[in-house]
What we know:
Layout: H1 11-24, E1 29-33, H2 36-44, H3 47-50, E2 55-59, H4 64-67, H5 70-81, E3 85-89, H6 103-108, E4 112-115, H7 119-128, E5 133-140, H8 145-157, E6 163-170, H9 172-181, E7 189-193, H10 194-200, H11 206-212, E8 216-219, H12 223-238, E9 244-246, H13 258-267, E10 268-275, E11 279-288, H14 297-300, H15 316-320, H16 352-359, H17 364-368
Parallel strand pairs: 1-2, 1-7, 3-4, 3-5, 5-6, 7-8, 8-9
Antiparallel strand pairs: 6-11, 10-11
Amino acid sequence: MLKFLDEYQDAKVARQYAEAIKAITIHPWTIMEICGGQTHAIVKYGLDELLPKEITLLHGPGCPVCVTPLELIEKAIEIALRPNVIFCSFGDMLRVPGSKIDLLTVRARGGDVRIVYSPLDAVKIAHANPSRETVFFAVGFETTAPANAMAIFQAKQQGLQNFSMLVSHVLVPPAVEAILNAKENRVEGFLAAGHVCTIMGFTEYEPLVQKYHVPIVVTGFEPIDILQGIYMCVRQLENGEAKIENQYSRSVSREGNRPAQKLIRDVFEIIPRKWRGIGQIPNSGLGLREEYAAFNAELRFGIADHQIPEPPECISGRILQGIKKPYECPAFGTKCNPEHPLGATMVSSEGACAAYHRYRRLPPREKESLLKEK
């Protein structure tokens, strides 16, 4: 096993894996990586350009900021605009466009919008400001759910009455199944997100492998991780196999983090959830349980029933489903850019459009040099 970060970015080893993939590839295959962090690594280091032409990589709905629907962004903006509210969020969410403005604009207009690095920071802010409402925008996959659950649990234990969460948690396995059931689906194998599986393990993927006969490889985020994950997936496809494999064994076990899973179950329940540009996916989200309803910002501020349609000009939904690549969007790099985004995929640090806009303008040689030759 490799021990140091630079070993996972070694250009020589990366080319060896690329050659190994080429050596076992006979048929064309289409593989989707689920994680936006993996997408950025693939585009940044030009990993897809090292692969044989038979291998096509598609970018999946693995960016939690990107899949947060417009109506939840609008709810966040509405809450943040209210007097006597301190609205707390991770930084990525501030530039996600709503129908007219974003949270950064709310802050520029005098709204008390604060960037925090943990939901527990928001709990501390609520403690320090007992006369004001403090709201945390809880966005993420299973990875961030334990910390958000802990914040709610602590707020209840401490009797905090001025703290609530606007919850937009989504779950990966139902999204994978939605992709496999889609009429336009082309995906034949998946690279599963290693950080999600660090929390949840990978038993949830076993029914999908059996039902759809599709290989799923739990994969890390560095170039060597990803190339090894692709190799393992292609090897299964060429052998006619479909099983779970764990490339990211240095972090992931089959069972995952059981205490974290229990905390999630204690605070949250599984609900249907809308995904931006995709629509509602059954059993694909987390919502607060009834016993924690007092901390539900949608109920506290009376906005639970607000519904807003997605903008038709942004094709982020089709990008998140692997149907289109960012450069196939007519607005990419022109009407839609990091300074004036049409959708979240252009502003999130894990968004596919942001990755292509930032890295695909580099010439191939310059991209390859980002891998470190040992």
